[in-house]
Fold this sequence. Notes:
Elements: E1 2-6, H1 16-20, E2 25-27, E3 33-35, H2 44-53, E4 59-63
Antiparallel strand pairs: 1-4, 2-3
Amino acid sequence: MLRLRLDPTACAGHGLCADLLPERISRDEWGFPIISGDVPPALAAHARRAARACPVLALRLDRIADRPGARVMPPRKAD
């Protein structure tokens, strides 16, 4: 799973990210991005494109664990 992170002090409100990834990024009344939710695998390429398109490098895409702290249980043996 991927997560978009915004540096609000660096953001200049150009809006390219919202144009490239409207499924996860909208704009507030001043044109600054509002990020909603993590990025599913189906939108990963669009999210990478949006992060790369930011002219002030205010948007970053990070990989996150699906469920932090989740244990993987071995399969049960059939009796």
